[in-house]
Amino acid sequence: MKKGIKLIVGIVIIALIAVIAVKGKEYYENRYTGTYYYTMIPMDEPVELEEMKDDRGEVVGQGKKYKLKSYDEKGERLLEFSVNTEDKDKLFKPGTFLKIKASKEIVLGEEIISKDEVPEDILVKIEEGK
Which tens digits make up the pLDDT trace of 73-129? Predict the structure, then answer.
């Protein structure tokens, strides 16, 4: 009887470890594995510092929140991210092309690129979506 209980407990522990491992991998991939998207800062986007607020509405500094229509090979996605800075010159200027790495949940990073670095089929989508 004791062998049977030990076997069942062992199987339950192995099953729990397997479930935790699968869920952990799924969480990691959804949060930290990204796809590259391309966008352009709209020509009418103001280059103004804004108060940055936390989830409770308290001011935590200055910067700018961006909400940009972005594209990859599969289509369009609205990406949101912030630039935290006290220096207005560090904000993205209108007409700037960006390559943004985004997971299913968050934006992982962005970099300024030239228009020539945007894949041709995506550039067409960006220019149509202006």
Answer: 998 999 999 999 999 999 999 999 999 999 999 999 999 999 999 999 999 999 987
Phi-psi domain of 15 (left: phi exceeds 0; alpha: psi -120 through 50; beta: other): alpha
Q: Which residues contact residue 48 at a Cβ distance below 8 angstroms, ignoring those fewer than 6 apart?
A: 64, 88, 91
Query: Phi and psi dihedrals of 2, rounded to 5?
Result: -65, -35
3-state SS record for 60-114: EEEEEEEEEEEEECCEEEEEEEEEECCCHHHCCCCCCEEEEEECCCCEEEEEEEC
The CATH number assigned to the domain with range 34-128 reads 2.40.50.480
Question: Which residue ranges make up each domain of the chain?
Answer: 1-33, 34-128
State which H helix or E strand residue 17 sits in: helix 2-32
- Model confidence, pTM: 0.81
Strand partners, 40: 97
